[in-house]
Every structure is written in C-alpha cells, then in structure tokens.
C-alpha cells in the first residue's frame, strides 16, 4: 500500500477541474491548497516540460490567482523546473498510514462518536479551528463513503473530524481538538474510532496527512503506530498567495 494520492482526490475533492497538458488544474477554490493546486494527472509521472508548466500556470492566472502546484516527493524533476521558474516550496506534508484493524478500538463511553451529517457543535468546533465554510463544503461534495467524528472530554464537546473511504483506504481530514482539551488523549481516542469505523466499512488502511512542522501531530500519529508512506509540498510563485 503506497499510493494514497487518489484517496486524497476522492475524499477531499476539488469542485471542478480541467486538464491542461499533463496537469489536472482545479478551478479557483477558497477551500485551501489541497483543492486548488495543479498536479500531474498521473501521480506516477515524475516530470513535465517548462512549457507545460507555463501553460498550467497561465490557466491559473486566468482565474485571477497565483499559480500553485502540488509536487510529490517522487517528482524531483518537476520540483527543479518549478524552482528554476521562481516557485517557492511550502507546507511540506507527510502521508502516514496504518492497518485500520491494528488501531481500531471502541473509545470510552461518551468520548467519541461517528455521525453524518455533522452536528451544529461540530461545525462550531471546525469554525473555531479555521476550518471554514469553504472547507466544510468539500466534505459535503465528497461522493465517497464518509462520516464525521465528534469528540467529548470532561463531559464537554471538544473534537471534530471528517473521514472518507476510497477503495480500501480511508483518509481522515479536518481533525480539530479545542485548545482547552488538547493533551488529554481525545485525539488518540478519535483516531482509534476512525480506524474502527474504517475497518467496519471495508477499509484495510487508515491514512492521514500532516505537515512536517506539526511535530506534535507527527509524534501522536507515530505513537499510534502510523508510518510514513509518501511526501509532497506545494510550490507557489514568489510574491503570490496560495489559497
């Protein structure tokens, strides 16, 4: 199990895309980098010509936004072209996985639940954590098997997350734990519930994406037995602003 990037596309989908040469280019979307960045249509491809990069960039500029590319760790040739054209790397991200059955566990009573559609309190928790309406709209338009997770700690609402399944891989997104509830074990309980829901719904694997600078989250996921299987970063034009 190595290629989780089609899972990202299925569980956190762009609203609309267009193919420009070898690139899939999403339409402008306020839902963030994951649904806005151009990427090679074939995740196993490793490069594109400078002219093909420029054509994809021109299409994004025609939308009134800065060109933005997602570059996998297995695409160093593409990375070099973008670097030569003045694109800056940011948000280096690690994909981590675990066999769902190895992590699955029922959380303590009234600690974590799966529920769809999300409750109003989950929306409030996401909103407080910066997961705004544009990002929540992505959850609504995902056509995969999906659910939301709701966490409680010290008898108070404190956590929310979204999870979807593509083929035999589940991916967790938008995990948010209220600041007052952090370092109390809630995130771990929610991850175990995510693994249980995944296994119960036919997924063999549970995956998550985390930026390299989020050392606390990386430590948590590693402590749960999750292992890295890939990396990517975004490249944005100097002076531009990614969505």
Give an overview of the whole structure.
Pfam families: Acetyltransf_1. This protein has eight helices and eleven strands. It is an alpha+beta fold. The chain has two domains: 5-94 and 231-237, no CATH class; 97-229, Aminopeptidase (3-Layer(aba) Sandwich). The strands form two sheets. The chain has an eight-stranded mixed sheet with strand order 4-11-5-10-9-8-7-6, with helices on both faces. The longest helix has 15 residues, at 186-200. The protein is elongated. The mean pLDDT is 95.
Low-confidence stretches: none
Seen as an oligomer or otherwise, the chain set is: single chain
- CATH T-level topology of the largest domain: Aminopeptidase
Radius of gyration: 18 Å
What is the percent of helical residues?
A: 25-40%
The total count of helices amounts to 8
The N- to C-terminal Cα distance equals 30 Å
How would you describe this structure in keywords?
elongated; 8-stranded mixed beta sheet; 2 domains; 3-stranded antiparallel beta sheet; alpha+beta; 243 residues; Aminopeptidase; 11 strands
């Amino acid at each position: 199990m190595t290629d989780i990037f089609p899972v990202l596309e299925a569980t956190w989908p762009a609203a609309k895309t267009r193919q420009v040469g070898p690139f899939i280019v999403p339409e402008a979307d306020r839902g963030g980098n994951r649904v806005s960045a151009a990427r090679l249509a074939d995740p196993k491809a490793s490069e594109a010509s400078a002219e093909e990069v420029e054509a994809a960039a021109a299409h994004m500029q025609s939308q009134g936004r800065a060109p933005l590319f997602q570059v996998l760790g297995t695409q160093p040739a593409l990375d070099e072209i973008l670097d030569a054209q003045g694109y800056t790397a940011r948000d280096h991200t690690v994909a981590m996985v675990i066999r769902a059955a190895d992590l699955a566990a029922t959380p303590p009573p009234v600690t974590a639940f799966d529920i769809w559609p999300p409750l109003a309190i989950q929306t409030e928790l996401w909103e407080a954590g910066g997961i705004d309406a544009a990002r929540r709209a992505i959850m609504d338009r995902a056509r995969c098997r999906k659910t939301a997770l709701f966490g409680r700690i010290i008898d108070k609402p404190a956590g929310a997350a979204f999870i979807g399944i593509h083929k035999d891989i589940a991916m967790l997104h938008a995990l948010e734990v209220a600041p007052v509830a952090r370092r109390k074990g809630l995130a771990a309980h929610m991850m175990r519930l995510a693994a249980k829901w995944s296994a119960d719904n036919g997924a063999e694997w549970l995956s998550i994406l985390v930026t390299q600078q989020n050392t606390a989250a990386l430590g948590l996921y590693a402590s749960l037995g999750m292992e890295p299987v890939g990396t990517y970063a975004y490249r944005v034009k100097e002076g531009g602003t990614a969505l």
